[in-house]
Amino acid sequence: MDAADDLTPLDPAYKTLLRVQLAIAALILLAAATIAEVAIPGWTGVVWLPALAVAAYALIRVPLRRYHARGYSLAGERLRVARGVIFRSDTVVPFGRVQHIDVGQGPLERVFHLATLTVHTAGTHNASVALPGLSHGDAVAMREEIRAAIRRDTR
Amino acid sequence: MSEEAGNDALRTDPRTFAVRAIAMLGQLVLPIIVGAFAILDKGDLGDLLLYFVPLVLVAGGGNLLFAYLRWTRLTYTVGDTDIRVESGVLSRAARSVPYERIQDVSLEQKPLPRLFGLVEVRFETGAGGGDDLSLAYLRESEGERLRELVRSRREGPGASAAPTGEDELAQANTAHLLYAMSPRRVVTFGLFEFSLVVVAVAAGVAQQFDFLLPFEIWDWRGWRDISDWRAWGDQLSGPGAWLAGLGIHAQVLGALIAALALLLIGVASGVVRTVLREWGFRLERTDKGLRRRRGLLTRTDLVMPTHRIQALRVRTGMVRRLFGFHALKAVSLASDSGSANHDAVPFGRMNEIARVVSETGFALPDESSDWHRGAPAHRIDAFLLGLAAMLVLSGIALALGHWKLAIVPTILGGGAIAFDQFLTWHWTRHALDRDRLYTGRGWLAPSMTIAARHKLQSVELVQHPLARLRGYADVRFGLAGGNLRLRGLSVAEAERVRAAVLDSMAANDFSQIGEATPTGC
Fold this sequence. Notes:
The complex is a heterodimer of chains A (155) and B (521).
Chain A: H1 13-39, H2 48-60, H3 62-69, E1 71-73, E2 78-83, E3 88-94, E4 100-104, H4 107-111, E5 114-120, E6 128-135, H5 136-154
Antiparallel strand pairs in A: 1-2, 2-3, 4-5, 5-6
Chain B: E1 9-11, H1 15-40, H2 45-73, E2 75-78, E3 82-87, E4 93-98, E5 104-109, H3 111-116, E6 118-124, E7 133-139, H4 140-154, H5 166-170, E8 176-180, H6 183-192, H7 196-208, H8 220-223, H9 229-235, H10 241-245, H11 248-278, E9 282-286, E10 289-294, E11 299-304, E12 311-315, E13 326-331, E14 343-348, H12 350-359, E15 372-373, H13 376-399, H14 403-427, E16 429-432, E17 436-441, E18 447-452, E19 458-463, H15 465-470, E20 472-479, E21 482-490, H16 491-507, H17 510-516
Antiparallel strand pairs in B: 1-2, 2-3, 3-4, 5-6, 5-11, 6-7, 8-9, 9-10, 10-11, 12-13, 12-18, 13-14, 15-16, 16-17, 17-18, 19-20, 20-21
Keywords (chain B): Membrane, Transmembrane, Transmembrane helix
Domain YdbS-like PH (chain B): 71-149, 281-340, 425-499
Organism (chain B): Qipengyuania citrea
């Protein structure tokens, strides 16, 4: 179960998107650290430095690792979605089992022209499988491909 | 009312109104009694006539009026492709359910409607959240007619008969009894339905009646020095003194009798609940699928279309297993809503279950089944994690200076965990055959799931960090109406299972799946 094997990587802009999302979280963290720094008497930097290190790690390393952990494949009329740095999961949904398809765009995703493709199945577990970080054009193309496969199957 | 021309908008049976009014009056009894107490408490007969009688009349009359309005404003239309129900007195609601989306039709008779010969018809769509369409109440014959109609419309023009459904079409119209519970079997079943919750509740209620005791049983000060018999005697002074005078044997006997009484309540409540629910249990093979009827006061009549069954579960309990009793349950989308209980054989011998299983197009595993177990590493890790927790406990005990106590968690706890993990490993297994996936788990009360491979919706491989390090993975399947997972398989085995299941999913014609799932495109 390696991420590398014949999986299509996500759109590179997804790294930037993750970075922006994490930067917002990092800003909140740093703000909290600043308050703590002011409130706690003692050496300067006792809270600041660890917080800064965490923020730097989150901004530099985490987006890359996440990006590389994720991937998808449409081979053999199946949608395969791999994700997770620490907890890995690898989901396969045959096109024939897709009940309906969503292509969603959040405000940040719109800025980077990205989209999230979500397929819904009838299963209780994995009732919906989301694939974020696709370029909007790709997501729409994938939706059409899956939809065409369903229509052909249904006759 | 805005029903379309052509199809008649029908009303429920007029007696519905009577049943509803009686039921509503039943609910009103308590408020009326409370009201009566409030008014009569300090009033006289004049107040009674002035306030109470009009109150009852207004409340009762209002109820009757409302029940009548509701009855006149609820209509249903049996269309060509769907059933439409329009309802509501002030705010109107119209709901339409296409025939193809109806999972099964169940008829339910609560005691009161049963007296009038009425049924509640429920159309289960698997929508979940109790949002199923139901019609209360119709004449029994009308309920039967609707059920037949839904069935024939579903298989009418456009809806080609499902390939898995062909055997049921081949079967004649005759109902073929698959399984029935004799009164004796029902009572036996009830004995196993012993509920600790009921016992706890009964004990709690008994506690509420301690004021009947002639002494303060919960006054701990009086009991402080148990060894001091005189103090005990003081506590039980007066009417309770004879209790102290009975001697230790009689007291132990008394405690035993109390425990037995609670136990008896637990058993009796289990029997009563089971008899009410399962009385006259009959499972039949009809051309529509499996038909189940049961209930003493509330009769239910449910048809589970065979081709809608996604998986079967065979379960048992710790104790009933020793007597050779198991239960069989069907997993279908309708079981998502939780309202429907799809027990096919709630309490039966394995050969009885095997007969029902074979009728549903599934099969029990046999000797030729190729069973596989999970990766030992998974269970070893679980054991080591448990042992680590026990060691922490021992460490705490040691730090507090109780070295004898420190032995207990590590030796006993560790031993128990090792025992449990080994047996769990041994009994958690899975097998694949051409059409089905078998999974078994549990050693105290083993359960087994038989899933149709081609009816699974998705496959997911999950690994946590430890699993990645040690090379095992969980496989989770998307099953319509239930959960299905294999824990701690070696990565190679997990991938083999996934590939095999995905192949049989892909090989299957979609129309059949569309038939098997309610929302198939």
